[in-house]
Amino acid sequence: ISDTGYDIWELFESQSAFPSTVWLNHEMQVYDQMNNAGSWSIGSRIDQMLEDCGSLCEGDGGCTTAPGDVNEDETLNIQDLITMVNHILGSSLVVDCALEAADMNVDGVVNIQDLISLVNAILGSARSADINGQAKIEYVTSGQDLIIRVNSNYDLEHGVDIAGIQLSIINDMPLEIQLKDNSHVNEKSSFIGGINRYLAYSMFNEPFDGRSTEILIKSGGNLSMNDIQVIIADINGDAIYLSHSQSGQNPQTGPYSFELKGLYPNPFNPSTQVSFSLPVESHVELAAYDLRGHKVAMIFEGAQTVGTHSYTWNASSLPSGVYYIRLQAGDMVTSQKALLIK
């Protein structure tokens, strides 16, 4: 509303005075005005406004759409899968109750994790035991191309089958993205608003071959790992925790490697100690993020020496939930999950 002088009197349609009580309807128009209105008058006017508003003002009591029923036809099938894929790729977005149904793990984001969960729901597959898998991501420049190497087979304790991969790449032109081998895996991609989006998954939730794979990004040799967001899901639809490095940019000249050593305790309330090591002196950012990717705390930022370091994160002002601790030193990035339970 813009005040243009005495025109303000026209706002309430009350000539040259301000009424003490004004009712505005759902279209932000003056429904009635009164001086010294009592509780009965106020309640009566509100009831009349709701009656006039009709079905537009009726509450639906919340969404009743079943998880995964993204097209809201009361059946889980391939149509829901296609609808969710299109939403993740940004080509056809779902909203309201359909969006709530698509967020199968209820973390506020629809991504490859929800897609794998939907595949399992359609197939009627039972959830496997929690895996807490880890994988290494290496970005290697090969001529004009970029190769993303994914390896979850390096650690016998935390090795895990890969069920789905999602990439989001910031670039001013569409990129051709190809998955090596894994002929049983579906690949879908889009380029919208300066972002290349890519999905790789099996419609029967068959894992990738050998717990490792390579993704070729043609003409992507100029990309930095900071231009690329990678999400990898296991067969349950849970996130696999990733450690990132770029070829030639992860030096180790002594006994220390670039590593986020751990959090203790974890789960925690409200504080946990975060330890990491550096192979070279670096400018470090140690931060906490929520599941939507929003930074919720900067634990430490500044120059740091070679060796092992520890900092305490106090999350007393945050709600219970899953968070990610992200360590970045130059072009080296790694992260770990933290569980806050109050």
UniProtKB/TrEMBL annotation:
One Gene Ontology biological process: polysaccharide catabolic process
Example GO molecular function: hydrolase activity, hydrolyzing O-glycosyl compounds
Signal peptide range: none
Stretches assigned to coiled coil: none
Annotated Dockerin domain residues: 63-131
InterPro entries reported in the protein's UniProt record: Dockerin_1_rpt, Dockerin_dom, Dockerin_dom_sf, Secre_tail
NCBIfam families membership: Por_Secre_tail (TIGR04183)
Protein name according to UniProt: Dockerin domain-containing protein
Organism: marine metagenome
